[in-house]
Amino acid sequence: MHISFFLLEVEGIPKKDEISNDEEPANVKVDIKSLAEILQEDALFLEYDEKTRNKIRSSFFRLPPIYTGESQDYNKATADTARKTTEEQVFQPERMIITGKLNTLFLPDLDLWHVRLILNGPDFRDPLEIAKVLTPFIQAGAVSPNDLRDLAGRILGKTLEEWPEEEYHRPIEAKPKASTSFLDTVLQKSAGTNNELVSILKDLRDELEEIRK
Fold it and tell me: Phi and psi dihedrals of 71, rounded to 5?
């Protein structure tokens, strides 16, 4: 059996009496506290610190946690929603205030009366999602190739100019689905059953095609 002892020796700092000029030992007091309580108080301080940061971020700057990297429970949908909402309610009004002051105070001093400054915001449109939406219109022949040049440029990350030829300004013609004639169907079903019958039907098909011409 192992027994441990903790010996603590303390000594008070003597104080000098100003009247008698004698030194008197000071009283000594030792407080022993549990380390678990100190850790708990430290955790409460961290929680208070986190709440203070959240209050400052949301009250003064009106920003969601994703802008300061303080949240890990975001996915693409919630992140896009947070960005769009913040853009509409925070950044766009701030840009309007800045441009309003510049247009009112800055441009008149430069003698510019027919010019207005505009600060553009980010483009949250997803080119791939737009391409999916446009697929039925392309298949139906409702858009022209030049209508898709801007979208293709955003996907490729570069500027694409419109083609000057007139044919690229016309809608794309929908390709008709390949149709199978009745004789072709009969030939496919008869293949491998009776070679002589297949030969007769092929000759009949050729004759009918000549008559149509």
Answer: -135, 145
